[in-house]
Structure formats: C-alpha cells, structure tokens
Give the backbone structure.
Amino acid sequence: MFRPLARWMRFYGAGPLHLVIVLGCFALTGYVVFQLLAEPLLVRIVIWFAAAIILHDLVLFPLYALADRVLTGAHRGARNTTGPLVSPVNYIRVPVLATGLLLLLFLPGIIRQGAPTYLAATGQTQEPFLSRWLLITVGLFAASTLLYCVRLCYAHRQAKRQTGLTNEHETEH
C-alpha cells in the first residue's frame, strides 16, 4: 500500500474518501441550520426533533431491539432440529422494516391529518391511504414468505443431493 495512505488510514481509521464524505455531510448540515435560523417556526422544529429523538431512543429502539433479540433467540433455539434450516430472520426483518418506514411516511395521510388541505390541493380524499398501506404490507410479507419458501426448498434439495453424494461415496469404499 502507498506509504502516506497507510499512515493516513492508521491515523484516521478510514480512507480519505470517508473524510471527504463526512465533511460534506457537516457542510450540508451547517447550510440547513443556517437556513433554518431565519425560520419563524424554528422552536417548533427543534421541539419536534427533540421529541422524535426521545421517542426513538427511549421507546422505539428498546422495543425493536427486544423484538429482534426474541426473533434471533427463537431461531437459535430452532437450530437444534434436524434437516436444513434456513434462517427466517431477514425474511421477517425486511418486510417489517419496510412496513414500518411506510407507516411513518404515510401516517399523516392514514390518520387523515390535514384532510381539508389535501382535498383542496388534489381534489381527492385521504380515504385510500390506510387500505393501500395494508395492501403493500400484505404484498411485502407475501413476497418475503414466497422467497423464504423458495430458499427453503432449495436448501432441502441441496441437502438431499449432499446426502446422496455421501451415501454413494460410502458404498464405493
């Protein structure tokens, strides 16, 4: 490795591109903060961010960390069974995460917050938001279940093929 680059990575802990990206993020954040200083609703924005941080860090994070711990613990306990076992953990995590993010994104429409403004701007009601979110949720979990079943079938087929090869080798010797 190029000697100054090796020294840099030893000192900084990452490549120079990482530092450029971090500095760019700080510059963007500084620009946004500078633009918000003139905002008359700045106090409300700060309160909203503080409440979001508190809600996430003190309530939501412990809840989904506990749920993930239960999920991975249940999978570890099931490993003792016979046959090929494909971990269902990511097949559950991905649709739950996608569904949660979509709920967060579309929650104002689902609870019909700002219904008169939405109706005036689009000429439509917020009625379909909940049903569409539910349909997307069902679709995400159905697709994940289908992918898990395909992966499980493939693992069973590989295991049968592997045991067939093992049995053939044992009979030859």
The mean pLDDT is 87. The chain has three domains: 1-38, 40-81, 82-173.
